[in-house]
Design a protein that fits this description.
The chain is an alpha+beta fold. It is about 30% helix and about 25% strand. The strands form 6 sheets. It has an 8-stranded mixed beta sheet with strand order 5-4-3-6-2-1-7-8.
Length: about 575
Protein backbone atom coordinates (compact mmCIF):
# COMPACT_ATOMS: atom_id res chain seq x y z
CA UNK A 1 0.00 0.00 0.00
CA UNK A 2 1.33 3.50 -0.86
CA UNK A 3 1.90 6.03 1.94
CA UNK A 4 2.83 9.69 2.18
CA UNK A 5 6.49 8.81 2.64
CA UNK A 6 6.64 7.17 -0.82
CA UNK A 7 8.46 8.98 -3.61
CA UNK A 8 6.24 7.30 -6.22
CA UNK A 9 4.18 9.81 -8.18
CA UNK A 10 0.82 9.30 -9.87
CA UNK A 11 1.03 9.52 -13.66
CA UNK A 12 -1.24 8.82 -16.59
CA UNK A 13 -0.19 5.60 -18.28
CA UNK A 14 1.14 5.73 -21.86
CA UNK A 15 -1.33 4.63 -24.54
CA UNK A 16 0.81 1.56 -25.30
CA UNK A 17 0.53 0.32 -21.71
CA UNK A 18 -3.20 1.11 -21.59
CA UNK A 19 -3.66 -0.91 -24.77
CA UNK A 20 -1.88 -3.93 -23.34
CA UNK A 21 -3.90 -3.79 -20.13
CA UNK A 22 -7.14 -3.59 -22.11
CA UNK A 23 -5.99 -6.49 -24.28
CA UNK A 24 -5.37 -8.55 -21.16
CA UNK A 25 -9.01 -8.11 -20.15
CA UNK A 26 -10.57 -8.92 -23.51
CA UNK A 27 -8.03 -11.32 -25.09
CA UNK A 28 -7.22 -14.12 -22.67
CA UNK A 29 -6.09 -16.70 -25.23
CA UNK A 30 -6.16 -17.33 -29.01
CA UNK A 31 -9.78 -18.48 -28.79
CA UNK A 32 -10.70 -15.06 -27.35
CA UNK A 33 -9.25 -13.38 -30.44
CA UNK A 34 -11.12 -15.83 -32.67
CA UNK A 35 -14.35 -15.03 -30.82
CA UNK A 36 -13.95 -11.27 -31.29
CA UNK A 37 -13.16 -11.58 -34.99
CA UNK A 38 -16.04 -13.99 -35.61
CA UNK A 39 -18.43 -11.58 -33.88
CA UNK A 40 -17.15 -8.73 -36.06
CA UNK A 41 -17.75 -10.86 -39.15
CA UNK A 42 -21.29 -11.73 -38.07
CA UNK A 43 -22.07 -8.08 -37.33
CA UNK A 44 -20.76 -7.23 -40.82
CA UNK A 45 -23.39 -9.51 -42.37
CA UNK A 46 -21.06 -12.34 -43.41
CA UNK A 47 -22.60 -15.53 -44.80
CA UNK A 48 -19.29 -17.43 -44.86
CA UNK A 49 -16.52 -17.33 -42.25
CA UNK A 50 -13.23 -19.23 -42.55
CA UNK A 51 -10.95 -19.65 -39.55
CA UNK A 52 -7.37 -20.97 -39.85
CA UNK A 53 -5.03 -21.55 -36.91
CA UNK A 54 -1.49 -22.81 -36.48
CA UNK A 55 0.12 -24.01 -33.26
CA UNK A 56 -3.09 -23.51 -31.30
CA UNK A 57 -3.42 -19.97 -32.63
CA UNK A 58 -0.17 -18.77 -31.12
CA UNK A 59 1.78 -18.77 -34.37
CA UNK A 60 -1.10 -17.77 -36.62
CA UNK A 61 -4.81 -17.09 -36.39
CA UNK A 62 -6.59 -15.92 -39.53
CA UNK A 63 -10.30 -15.12 -39.86
CA UNK A 64 -11.72 -14.47 -43.34
CA UNK A 65 -15.28 -13.30 -43.99
CA UNK A 66 -17.42 -12.09 -46.89
CA UNK A 67 -19.15 -9.37 -44.90
CA UNK A 68 -19.53 -5.69 -45.72
CA UNK A 69 -15.85 -4.90 -45.19
CA UNK A 70 -14.27 -1.72 -43.80
CA UNK A 71 -14.05 1.51 -45.76
CA UNK A 72 -10.47 2.41 -46.64
CA UNK A 73 -10.85 5.83 -45.02
CA UNK A 74 -11.86 4.15 -41.72
CA UNK A 75 -9.32 1.34 -41.52
CA UNK A 76 -6.96 3.17 -39.16
CA UNK A 77 -9.83 4.37 -37.03
CA UNK A 78 -11.11 0.79 -36.71
CA UNK A 79 -7.88 -0.13 -34.91
CA UNK A 80 -8.25 2.56 -32.26
CA UNK A 81 -9.75 1.79 -28.86
CA UNK A 82 -13.44 2.62 -28.45
CA UNK A 83 -13.92 3.30 -32.17
CA UNK A 84 -17.11 1.55 -33.33
CA UNK A 85 -19.95 1.82 -35.82
CA UNK A 86 -22.39 0.02 -33.50
CA UNK A 87 -22.92 2.53 -30.72
CA UNK A 88 -23.52 6.28 -30.68
CA UNK A 89 -25.08 7.28 -27.33
CA UNK A 90 -25.18 5.93 -23.79
CA UNK A 91 -28.88 5.19 -24.29
CA UNK A 92 -27.94 2.67 -27.00
CA UNK A 93 -26.48 0.40 -24.30
CA UNK A 94 -30.01 -0.38 -23.14
CA UNK A 95 -30.89 -2.31 -26.30
CA UNK A 96 -27.78 -3.66 -28.00
CA UNK A 97 -28.62 -5.73 -31.07
CA UNK A 98 -25.06 -6.42 -32.28
CA UNK A 99 -22.50 -8.83 -30.83
CA UNK A 100 -19.81 -6.18 -30.60
CA UNK A 101 -20.31 -2.64 -29.36
CA UNK A 102 -17.30 -1.44 -27.37
CA UNK A 103 -14.87 -0.91 -30.23
CA UNK A 104 -12.08 -2.72 -28.38
CA UNK A 105 -11.56 -5.96 -30.31
CA UNK A 106 -9.21 -4.94 -33.13
CA UNK A 107 -7.29 -2.52 -30.93
CA UNK A 108 -6.81 -5.13 -28.19
CA UNK A 109 -5.73 -7.83 -30.64
CA UNK A 110 -3.33 -5.52 -32.48
CA UNK A 111 -1.76 -4.39 -29.19
CA UNK A 112 -0.45 -7.89 -28.38
CA UNK A 113 0.35 -9.31 -31.82
CA UNK A 114 1.62 -8.66 -35.31
CA UNK A 115 -1.59 -8.05 -37.21
CA UNK A 116 -2.41 -7.66 -40.89
CA UNK A 117 -5.86 -6.52 -42.02
CA UNK A 118 -6.92 -6.82 -45.66
CA UNK A 119 -10.39 -5.47 -46.37
CA UNK A 120 -12.62 -4.04 -49.07
CA UNK A 121 -15.94 -2.40 -48.45
CA UNK A 122 -18.61 -3.71 -50.80
CA UNK A 123 -19.25 -0.14 -52.09
CA UNK A 124 -15.59 0.47 -53.00
CA UNK A 125 -13.54 -0.72 -55.97
CA UNK A 126 -10.18 -1.01 -54.22
CA UNK A 127 -9.29 -2.71 -50.97
CA UNK A 128 -6.71 -1.72 -48.37
CA UNK A 129 -4.02 -3.56 -46.41
CA UNK A 130 -2.90 -2.40 -42.96
CA UNK A 131 0.01 -3.92 -41.01
CA UNK A 132 0.49 -3.34 -37.28
CA UNK A 133 3.15 -4.45 -34.81
CA UNK A 134 2.16 -4.31 -31.16
CA UNK A 135 -0.55 -1.81 -32.04
CA UNK A 136 1.78 0.51 -33.98
CA UNK A 137 0.94 0.98 -37.66
CA UNK A 138 3.78 -0.20 -39.89
CA UNK A 139 2.39 0.01 -43.40
CA UNK A 140 -0.79 0.82 -45.29
CA UNK A 141 -1.39 0.35 -48.99
CA UNK A 142 -4.16 -0.12 -51.52
CA UNK A 143 -4.69 -3.67 -52.70
CA UNK A 144 -7.05 -5.67 -54.88
CA UNK A 145 -9.31 -7.83 -52.72
CA UNK A 146 -12.80 -9.34 -52.68
CA UNK A 147 -15.45 -7.67 -50.56
CA UNK A 148 -15.03 -8.65 -46.93
CA UNK A 149 -12.24 -8.74 -44.40
CA UNK A 150 -9.21 -10.92 -43.62
CA UNK A 151 -7.52 -10.45 -40.24
CA UNK A 152 -4.25 -12.35 -39.74
CA UNK A 153 -2.79 -12.46 -36.23
CA UNK A 154 0.79 -13.68 -35.85
CA UNK A 155 2.85 -14.28 -32.71
CA UNK A 156 0.04 -13.54 -30.30
CA UNK A 157 1.27 -12.19 -26.93
CA UNK A 158 4.82 -11.76 -28.28
CA UNK A 159 5.17 -8.54 -26.26
CA UNK A 160 3.40 -9.75 -23.11
CA UNK A 161 5.62 -12.58 -21.80
CA UNK A 162 3.60 -12.90 -18.60
CA UNK A 163 0.44 -13.76 -20.56
CA UNK A 164 2.43 -16.06 -22.85
CA UNK A 165 3.78 -17.95 -19.83
CA UNK A 166 0.23 -18.74 -18.69
CA UNK A 167 -0.84 -20.18 -22.03
CA UNK A 168 -1.95 -23.80 -21.90
CA UNK A 169 -0.67 -26.59 -24.13
CA UNK A 170 -1.15 -26.40 -27.88
CA UNK A 171 -3.73 -29.19 -27.70
CA UNK A 172 -5.74 -27.29 -25.09
CA UNK A 173 -5.66 -24.06 -27.10
CA UNK A 174 -6.74 -25.90 -30.25
CA UNK A 175 -9.68 -27.35 -28.34
CA UNK A 176 -10.73 -23.90 -27.12
CA UNK A 177 -10.61 -22.56 -30.68
CA UNK A 178 -12.65 -25.49 -31.94
CA UNK A 179 -15.43 -25.00 -29.41
CA UNK A 180 -15.46 -21.25 -29.96
CA UNK A 181 -16.08 -21.81 -33.67
CA UNK A 182 -18.54 -24.65 -33.01
CA UNK A 183 -20.60 -22.47 -30.68
CA UNK A 184 -21.04 -19.72 -33.25
CA UNK A 185 -21.74 -22.26 -35.99
CA UNK A 186 -24.58 -23.57 -33.82
CA UNK A 187 -25.86 -20.10 -32.96
CA UNK A 188 -25.83 -19.07 -36.64
CA UNK A 189 -26.64 -22.17 -38.72
CA UNK A 190 -27.34 -19.96 -41.75
CA UNK A 191 -23.67 -18.93 -41.86
CA UNK A 192 -21.18 -21.36 -43.41
CA UNK A 193 -18.22 -21.89 -41.08
CA UNK A 194 -14.95 -23.67 -41.86
CA UNK A 195 -12.24 -24.30 -39.26
CA UNK A 196 -8.76 -25.45 -40.23
CA UNK A 197 -6.11 -26.22 -37.65
CA UNK A 198 -2.52 -26.80 -38.78
CA UNK A 199 -3.72 -27.24 -42.35
CA UNK A 200 -6.34 -29.86 -41.50
CA UNK A 201 -10.06 -29.20 -41.69
CA UNK A 202 -11.65 -29.73 -38.28
CA UNK A 203 -15.17 -28.40 -38.70
CA UNK A 204 -17.39 -27.38 -41.60
CA UNK A 205 -20.99 -26.22 -41.50
CA UNK A 206 -22.97 -25.81 -44.69
CA UNK A 207 -24.90 -22.68 -43.75
CA UNK A 208 -28.16 -24.37 -44.76
CA UNK A 209 -29.90 -23.14 -41.62
CA UNK A 210 -30.34 -26.60 -40.07
CA UNK A 211 -29.15 -26.53 -36.45
CA UNK A 212 -29.32 -30.32 -36.34
CA UNK A 213 -26.64 -30.58 -39.04
CA UNK A 214 -24.26 -28.35 -37.11
CA UNK A 215 -24.80 -30.15 -33.80
CA UNK A 216 -24.16 -33.49 -35.51
CA UNK A 217 -20.82 -32.21 -36.74
CA UNK A 218 -19.86 -30.46 -33.51
CA UNK A 219 -20.84 -33.20 -31.06
CA UNK A 220 -20.70 -36.18 -33.42
CA UNK A 221 -23.53 -38.14 -35.03
CA UNK A 222 -23.50 -40.82 -32.33
CA UNK A 223 -24.20 -38.17 -29.72
CA UNK A 224 -26.82 -36.37 -31.79
CA UNK A 225 -28.80 -39.59 -32.18
CA UNK A 226 -29.54 -39.32 -28.45
CA UNK A 227 -30.83 -35.74 -28.54
CA UNK A 228 -34.34 -34.33 -28.88
CA UNK A 229 -35.56 -30.97 -30.17
CA UNK A 230 -36.68 -28.18 -27.87
CA UNK A 231 -39.25 -25.65 -29.12
CA UNK A 232 -40.99 -23.48 -26.56
CA UNK A 233 -42.41 -19.99 -26.13
CA UNK A 234 -42.85 -18.24 -22.81
CA UNK A 235 -45.70 -15.97 -23.85
CA UNK A 236 -45.64 -12.23 -23.27
CA UNK A 237 -47.49 -11.09 -20.14
CA UNK A 238 -48.07 -7.63 -18.69
CA UNK A 239 -44.63 -6.31 -17.83
CA UNK A 240 -43.00 -9.55 -18.99
CA UNK A 241 -41.42 -10.08 -22.43
CA UNK A 242 -41.83 -13.10 -24.67
CA UNK A 243 -38.98 -15.63 -24.44
CA UNK A 244 -38.47 -18.01 -27.37
CA UNK A 245 -36.40 -21.13 -26.71
CA UNK A 246 -35.19 -23.55 -29.37
CA UNK A 247 -32.42 -26.11 -29.67
CA UNK A 248 -31.64 -29.68 -28.67
CA UNK A 249 -31.04 -31.53 -25.40
CA UNK A 250 -29.81 -35.04 -24.75
CA UNK A 251 -31.92 -37.91 -23.54
CA UNK A 252 -30.84 -39.39 -20.19
CA UNK A 253 -28.92 -42.06 -22.12
CA UNK A 254 -26.34 -39.41 -23.15
CA UNK A 255 -24.47 -37.57 -20.42
CA UNK A 256 -21.00 -36.69 -19.21
CA UNK A 257 -19.22 -35.86 -15.96
CA UNK A 258 -19.14 -32.07 -16.45
CA UNK A 259 -21.41 -29.22 -17.57
CA UNK A 260 -19.16 -28.21 -20.48
CA UNK A 261 -21.61 -29.46 -23.10
CA UNK A 262 -24.43 -27.23 -21.88
CA UNK A 263 -24.17 -24.46 -24.47
CA UNK A 264 -26.39 -21.40 -24.16
CA UNK A 265 -27.06 -18.42 -26.41
CA UNK A 266 -29.05 -15.27 -25.75
CA UNK A 267 -29.96 -13.27 -28.85
CA UNK A 268 -27.18 -15.00 -30.76
CA UNK A 269 -24.54 -14.36 -28.09
CA UNK A 270 -22.73 -17.30 -26.46
CA UNK A 271 -23.00 -16.84 -22.70
CA UNK A 272 -21.81 -18.42 -19.48
CA UNK A 273 -24.61 -18.42 -16.93
CA UNK A 274 -24.46 -20.82 -13.99
CA UNK A 275 -28.10 -20.13 -13.15
CA UNK A 276 -29.37 -21.14 -16.60
CA UNK A 277 -27.05 -24.17 -16.64
CA UNK A 278 -28.62 -25.13 -13.33
CA UNK A 279 -32.07 -24.68 -14.87
CA UNK A 280 -31.12 -27.22 -17.55
CA UNK A 281 -29.80 -29.77 -15.05
CA UNK A 282 -32.83 -29.24 -12.80
CA UNK A 283 -35.02 -30.34 -15.69
CA UNK A 284 -33.30 -33.75 -15.51
CA UNK A 285 -34.15 -34.29 -11.84
CA UNK A 286 -34.96 -37.97 -11.42
CA UNK A 287 -33.65 -38.75 -14.92
CA UNK A 288 -29.88 -38.56 -14.32
CA UNK A 289 -27.74 -39.83 -11.48
CA UNK A 290 -25.83 -37.34 -9.32
CA UNK A 291 -22.66 -36.15 -11.03
CA UNK A 292 -24.02 -36.75 -14.54
CA UNK A 293 -24.76 -33.79 -16.80
CA UNK A 294 -26.61 -33.57 -20.12
CA UNK A 295 -25.69 -32.22 -23.53
CA UNK A 296 -27.69 -29.13 -24.46
CA UNK A 297 -27.69 -26.44 -27.13
CA UNK A 298 -30.32 -23.81 -26.36
CA UNK A 299 -30.95 -20.57 -28.24
CA UNK A 300 -32.92 -17.98 -26.27
CA UNK A 301 -34.44 -14.98 -28.04
CA UNK A 302 -36.01 -12.01 -26.26
CA UNK A 303 -36.30 -8.22 -26.42
CA UNK A 304 -32.86 -6.62 -26.45
CA UNK A 305 -33.82 -4.20 -23.68
CA UNK A 306 -34.66 -7.14 -21.38
CA UNK A 307 -31.02 -8.26 -21.21
CA UNK A 308 -27.90 -6.30 -20.24
CA UNK A 309 -24.82 -7.52 -22.15
CA UNK A 310 -22.49 -4.79 -20.89
CA UNK A 311 -21.49 -6.76 -17.79
CA UNK A 312 -18.18 -8.49 -18.48
CA UNK A 313 -15.06 -7.52 -20.51
CA UNK A 314 -15.48 -10.60 -22.72
CA UNK A 315 -19.29 -10.13 -22.97
CA UNK A 316 -19.67 -13.74 -21.84
CA UNK A 317 -22.00 -12.86 -18.96
CA UNK A 318 -25.37 -11.14 -19.13
CA UNK A 319 -28.03 -9.92 -16.73
CA UNK A 320 -31.77 -10.31 -17.20
CA UNK A 321 -34.36 -7.87 -15.93
CA UNK A 322 -36.25 -10.90 -14.61
CA UNK A 323 -33.83 -13.80 -14.18
CA UNK A 324 -36.46 -15.98 -12.48
CA UNK A 325 -38.71 -15.74 -15.53
CA UNK A 326 -35.90 -16.94 -17.81
CA UNK A 327 -34.86 -19.69 -15.37
CA UNK A 328 -38.38 -21.14 -15.20
CA UNK A 329 -38.83 -20.84 -18.98
CA UNK A 330 -35.64 -22.82 -19.66
CA UNK A 331 -36.40 -25.46 -17.05
CA UNK A 332 -39.95 -25.95 -18.34
CA UNK A 333 -38.89 -26.09 -22.01
CA UNK A 334 -36.25 -28.75 -21.38
CA UNK A 335 -38.47 -30.83 -19.11
CA UNK A 336 -41.35 -30.84 -21.57
CA UNK A 337 -39.02 -31.87 -24.41
CA UNK A 338 -37.73 -34.78 -22.34
CA UNK A 339 -41.14 -35.96 -21.20
CA UNK A 340 -42.40 -35.71 -24.76
CA UNK A 341 -39.73 -38.14 -25.96
CA UNK A 342 -40.88 -41.75 -25.83
CA UNK A 343 -37.69 -43.11 -24.28
CA UNK A 344 -36.96 -40.37 -21.76
CA UNK A 345 -37.55 -42.57 -18.72
CA UNK A 346 -36.11 -41.99 -15.25
CA UNK A 347 -32.75 -43.69 -14.81
CA UNK A 348 -33.13 -46.87 -12.78
CA UNK A 349 -31.84 -46.23 -9.29
CA UNK A 350 -32.13 -49.78 -7.97
CA UNK A 351 -28.37 -50.18 -8.05
CA UNK A 352 -27.38 -46.51 -7.69
CA UNK A 353 -25.29 -47.21 -4.62
CA UNK A 354 -23.49 -50.22 -6.06
CA UNK A 355 -20.90 -48.45 -8.18
CA UNK A 356 -21.65 -50.22 -11.45
CA UNK A 357 -20.80 -48.39 -14.66
CA UNK A 358 -22.97 -45.55 -15.91
CA UNK A 359 -24.21 -47.27 -19.07
CA UNK A 360 -28.02 -47.29 -19.11
CA UNK A 361 -29.44 -50.68 -18.15
CA UNK A 362 -30.50 -52.62 -21.24
CA UNK A 363 -31.75 -56.19 -21.31
CA UNK A 364 -30.88 -58.87 -23.80
CA UNK A 365 -33.85 -58.34 -26.09
CA UNK A 366 -33.29 -54.59 -26.42
CA UNK A 367 -31.64 -52.93 -29.41
CA UNK A 368 -28.80 -51.35 -27.43
CA UNK A 369 -25.75 -51.51 -29.73
CA UNK A 370 -23.42 -52.57 -26.94
CA UNK A 371 -25.18 -55.94 -26.69
CA UNK A 372 -24.21 -58.75 -29.06
CA UNK A 373 -26.67 -59.54 -31.82
CA UNK A 374 -27.52 -62.87 -30.28
CA UNK A 375 -26.69 -64.93 -27.25
CA UNK A 376 -24.80 -67.35 -29.48
CA UNK A 377 -22.38 -64.58 -30.40
CA UNK A 378 -21.76 -63.79 -26.75
CA UNK A 379 -21.32 -67.32 -25.45
CA UNK A 380 -20.22 -70.58 -26.99
CA UNK A 381 -20.87 -74.09 -25.71
CA UNK A 382 -18.17 -73.67 -23.08
CA UNK A 383 -19.18 -70.27 -21.81
CA UNK A 384 -17.67 -66.89 -22.66
CA UNK A 385 -16.39 -67.27 -26.21
CA UNK A 386 -14.10 -64.25 -25.92
CA UNK A 387 -12.01 -65.93 -23.21
CA UNK A 388 -10.78 -69.20 -24.70
CA UNK A 389 -8.64 -71.52 -22.65
CA UNK A 390 -5.06 -71.58 -23.90
CA UNK A 391 -4.28 -74.97 -25.41
CA UNK A 392 -0.94 -76.59 -24.73
CA UNK A 393 0.02 -74.33 -21.82
CA UNK A 394 -0.05 -75.15 -18.12
CA UNK A 395 -3.15 -73.91 -16.37
CA UNK A 396 -2.61 -70.76 -14.30
CA UNK A 397 -2.88 -71.40 -10.56
CA UNK A 398 -6.00 -70.21 -8.80
CA UNK A 399 -5.89 -66.91 -6.94
CA UNK A 400 -9.38 -67.42 -5.50
CA UNK A 401 -11.02 -70.52 -4.03
CA UNK A 402 -13.28 -72.63 -6.23
CA UNK A 403 -16.64 -70.89 -6.30
CA UNK A 404 -20.06 -72.35 -7.07
CA UNK A 405 -22.48 -70.01 -8.82
CA UNK A 406 -25.87 -69.83 -7.15
CA UNK A 407 -27.60 -67.24 -9.33
CA UNK A 408 -27.79 -63.67 -10.59
CA UNK A 409 -29.35 -60.59 -9.05
CA UNK A 410 -30.43 -57.43 -10.84
CA UNK A 411 -28.96 -58.66 -14.13
CA UNK A 412 -25.72 -57.16 -12.81
CA UNK A 413 -24.27 -59.34 -10.07
CA UNK A 414 -23.41 -63.03 -9.85
CA UNK A 415 -24.04 -64.75 -6.52
CA UNK A 416 -21.50 -67.45 -5.72
CA UNK A 417 -20.50 -69.44 -2.65
CA UNK A 418 -17.19 -70.91 -1.59
CA UNK A 419 -15.52 -72.51 1.42
CA UNK A 420 -15.00 -69.06 2.97
CA UNK A 421 -18.52 -67.73 2.53
CA UNK A 422 -20.59 -65.73 0.03
CA UNK A 423 -19.31 -63.78 -2.99
CA UNK A 424 -21.16 -61.08 -4.96
CA UNK A 425 -19.41 -60.68 -8.33
CA UNK A 426 -19.86 -57.59 -10.51
CA UNK A 427 -20.22 -59.24 -13.93
CA UNK A 428 -19.03 -56.18 -15.86
CA UNK A 429 -15.95 -55.52 -13.73
CA UNK A 430 -15.08 -59.23 -13.57
CA UNK A 431 -15.37 -59.72 -17.33
CA UNK A 432 -13.25 -56.61 -17.96
CA UNK A 433 -10.54 -58.06 -15.68
CA UNK A 434 -10.65 -61.41 -17.48
CA UNK A 435 -10.48 -59.80 -20.94
CA UNK A 436 -7.66 -57.49 -19.85
CA UNK A 437 -5.65 -60.52 -18.74
CA UNK A 438 -6.44 -62.29 -22.01
CA UNK A 439 -5.03 -59.39 -24.06
CA UNK A 440 -1.88 -59.34 -21.90
CA UNK A 441 -1.45 -63.09 -22.43
CA UNK A 442 -1.98 -62.83 -26.19
CA UNK A 443 0.51 -59.97 -26.40
CA UNK A 444 3.11 -61.99 -24.50
CA UNK A 445 2.54 -65.09 -26.65
CA UNK A 446 2.91 -63.91 -30.21
CA UNK A 447 0.49 -61.01 -30.55
CA UNK A 448 -3.09 -59.89 -30.01
CA UNK A 449 -5.58 -61.80 -32.15
CA UNK A 450 -7.38 -59.68 -34.72
CA UNK A 451 -9.65 -60.04 -37.74
CA UNK A 452 -10.05 -58.11 -40.99
CA UNK A 453 -13.64 -56.89 -41.33
CA UNK A 454 -15.58 -58.43 -44.25
CA UNK A 455 -16.55 -54.87 -45.19
CA UNK A 456 -14.68 -51.79 -44.07
CA UNK A 457 -16.76 -49.54 -41.83
CA UNK A 458 -16.70 -45.75 -41.76
CA UNK A 459 -17.10 -43.85 -38.50
CA UNK A 460 -17.74 -40.12 -38.21
CA UNK A 461 -16.33 -38.79 -34.94
CA UNK A 462 -16.81 -35.54 -33.12
CA UNK A 463 -13.93 -33.12 -33.76
CA UNK A 464 -12.67 -33.71 -30.21
CA UNK A 465 -12.63 -37.48 -30.70
CA UNK A 466 -11.01 -37.15 -34.13
CA UNK A 467 -8.24 -35.05 -32.60
CA UNK A 468 -7.71 -37.58 -29.82
CA UNK A 469 -7.66 -40.53 -32.23
CA UNK A 470 -5.00 -38.80 -34.32
CA UNK A 471 -2.91 -38.26 -31.18
CA UNK A 472 -3.10 -41.88 -29.95
CA UNK A 473 -3.38 -43.73 -33.27
CA UNK A 474 -0.19 -45.65 -32.46
CA UNK A 475 -1.81 -47.13 -29.35
CA UNK A 476 -4.75 -48.38 -31.42
CA UNK A 477 -2.31 -49.87 -33.93
CA UNK A 478 -0.54 -51.77 -31.13
CA UNK A 479 -3.89 -53.31 -30.20
CA UNK A 480 -4.28 -54.48 -33.83
CA UNK A 481 -6.76 -51.83 -34.97
CA UNK A 482 -6.32 -50.82 -38.60
CA UNK A 483 -7.82 -47.34 -39.02
CA UNK A 484 -7.27 -44.82 -41.81
CA UNK A 485 -8.26 -41.18 -42.20
CA UNK A 486 -11.13 -40.90 -44.69
CA UNK A 487 -12.10 -37.22 -44.48
CA UNK A 488 -12.73 -34.43 -41.98
CA UNK A 489 -13.37 -36.25 -38.67
CA UNK A 490 -14.10 -39.41 -40.68
CA UNK A 491 -12.17 -42.69 -40.44
CA UNK A 492 -12.29 -46.10 -42.12
CA UNK A 493 -11.94 -49.18 -39.88
CA UNK A 494 -10.51 -52.24 -41.65
CA UNK A 495 -9.31 -54.49 -38.81
CA UNK A 496 -10.32 -55.00 -35.18
CA UNK A 497 -9.06 -57.07 -32.24
CA UNK A 498 -11.08 -60.29 -32.04
CA UNK A 499 -12.42 -59.24 -28.66
CA UNK A 500 -14.69 -56.64 -30.28
CA UNK A 501 -15.45 -58.05 -33.73
CA UNK A 502 -19.01 -58.94 -32.66
CA UNK A 503 -19.70 -55.30 -31.75
CA UNK A 504 -20.50 -52.55 -34.28
CA UNK A 505 -17.15 -51.08 -35.29
CA UNK A 506 -18.68 -47.60 -35.39
CA UNK A 507 -19.46 -47.93 -31.66
CA UNK A 508 -16.18 -49.51 -30.53
CA UNK A 509 -13.88 -46.62 -31.39
CA UNK A 510 -15.97 -43.80 -29.80
CA UNK A 511 -16.43 -45.91 -26.66
CA UNK A 512 -12.69 -46.50 -26.34
CA UNK A 513 -11.92 -42.84 -26.99
CA UNK A 514 -14.33 -41.79 -24.24
CA UNK A 515 -12.45 -44.03 -21.81
CA UNK A 516 -9.01 -42.99 -23.06
CA UNK A 517 -9.84 -39.32 -22.68
CA UNK A 518 -9.83 -39.80 -18.90
CA UNK A 519 -6.64 -41.86 -18.71
CA UNK A 520 -2.92 -41.75 -19.46
CA UNK A 521 -1.75 -42.22 -23.06
CA UNK A 522 -0.20 -45.65 -22.48
CA UNK A 523 -0.62 -49.12 -23.98
CA UNK A 524 -1.76 -50.38 -20.59
CA UNK A 525 -4.58 -47.82 -20.42
CA UNK A 526 -5.54 -48.53 -24.03
CA UNK A 527 -5.69 -52.24 -23.20
CA UNK A 528 -7.92 -51.49 -20.21
CA UNK A 529 -10.21 -49.41 -22.45
CA UNK A 530 -10.41 -52.28 -24.96
CA UNK A 531 -11.32 -54.75 -22.21
CA UNK A 532 -13.96 -52.43 -20.77
CA UNK A 533 -15.47 -51.90 -24.23
CA UNK A 534 -15.68 -55.63 -24.92
CA UNK A 535 -16.95 -56.65 -21.48
CA UNK A 536 -20.54 -57.72 -20.91
CA UNK A 537 -22.64 -54.90 -19.47
CA UNK A 538 -24.67 -54.55 -16.35
CA UNK A 539 -28.22 -55.40 -17.34
CA UNK A 540 -27.45 -58.58 -19.30
CA UNK A 541 -29.14 -61.72 -18.06
CA UNK A 542 -26.67 -64.62 -18.10
CA UNK A 543 -27.21 -68.36 -18.22
CA UNK A 544 -25.90 -70.40 -15.29
CA UNK A 545 -23.11 -72.05 -17.27
CA UNK A 546 -21.96 -68.69 -18.59
CA UNK A 547 -21.75 -67.25 -15.08
CA UNK A 548 -19.82 -70.32 -13.91
CA UNK A 549 -17.40 -69.96 -16.84
CA UNK A 550 -16.77 -66.29 -16.04
CA UNK A 551 -16.20 -66.96 -12.34
CA UNK A 552 -13.83 -69.84 -13.14
CA UNK A 553 -11.72 -67.60 -15.35
CA UNK A 554 -11.69 -64.84 -12.73
CA UNK A 555 -10.39 -67.38 -10.21
CA UNK A 556 -7.25 -67.82 -12.32
CA UNK A 557 -6.49 -64.13 -12.95
CA UNK A 558 -3.25 -63.01 -11.25
CA UNK A 559 -5.04 -59.92 -9.89
CA UNK A 560 -8.74 -60.83 -9.64
CA UNK A 561 -9.76 -58.26 -7.06
CA UNK A 562 -10.38 -55.24 -9.31
CA UNK A 563 -11.18 -54.34 -12.90
CA UNK A 564 -8.45 -52.64 -14.98
CA UNK A 565 -10.16 -49.36 -14.12
CA UNK A 566 -9.94 -50.03 -10.38
CA UNK A 567 -13.53 -51.10 -9.59
CA UNK A 568 -14.11 -54.02 -7.25
CA UNK A 569 -14.84 -57.27 -9.06
CA UNK A 570 -16.50 -58.87 -6.05
CA UNK A 571 -17.56 -58.42 -2.45
CA UNK A 572 -16.81 -61.23 0.01
CA UNK A 573 -19.01 -61.94 3.03
CA UNK A 574 -17.37 -64.52 5.29
CA UNK A 575 -19.32 -67.18 7.17
CA UNK A 576 -18.55 -65.30 10.37
CA UNK A 577 -19.98 -62.05 8.96
CA UNK A 578 -23.12 -63.84 7.85
CA UNK A 579 -23.50 -65.46 11.25
CA UNK A 580 -23.11 -62.09 12.97
CA UNK A 581 -25.70 -60.50 10.69
CA UNK A 582 -28.22 -63.21 11.58
CA UNK A 583 -27.14 -63.26 15.23
CA UNK A 584 -26.15 -66.90 15.13
CA UNK A 585 -23.03 -66.37 17.21
Amino acid sequence: MLNSESDMTIEVLPEEVIGRIAAGEAIERPASAAKELIENAIDAGATAIHIAAEAGGRRLLRVTDNGAGIRSAEIRLACKRHATSKLRRAEDLRAIATLGFRGEALASIAAVSRTTIITRHRDEQMGVSLQLNGGAIQKQQGIGAPAGTVVSIENLFFNTPARLAFMKSEITEKRHIHWTVARYAMAYPKIAFVLQQDGRERLRSSGNGELSDVIGKAFGLNEFKHMVAVEAVEARRPGKPQVDISGYVSLPSLHRASRDRIILFVNGRAIQDSSLSHAVTQAYEGLLKPGAFPFAVLLLTMQTDFVDVNVHPTKAEVRFRDSQLVFVAVQRAVREALLGASDAEPAADLWSASGFNSEPIAFRNSQTPWLRKSEAELFDDEGLDSVPETIGEPERPRTLPVLRVVGQVGAAYIIAEGPAGLYLVDQNAAHARVLYQQVLDESANGGIESAILPESQTVLLSPDDAELLSEISELFAQLQFEIEVFGPNSFVIRRLPKLVTSLPAADVVPRMLALMRKSARTVDCATAALADTAAIRSGQILQHEDMQSLVAKLERCPAPFASPGGRKTFIHLSREQLADEFRRR
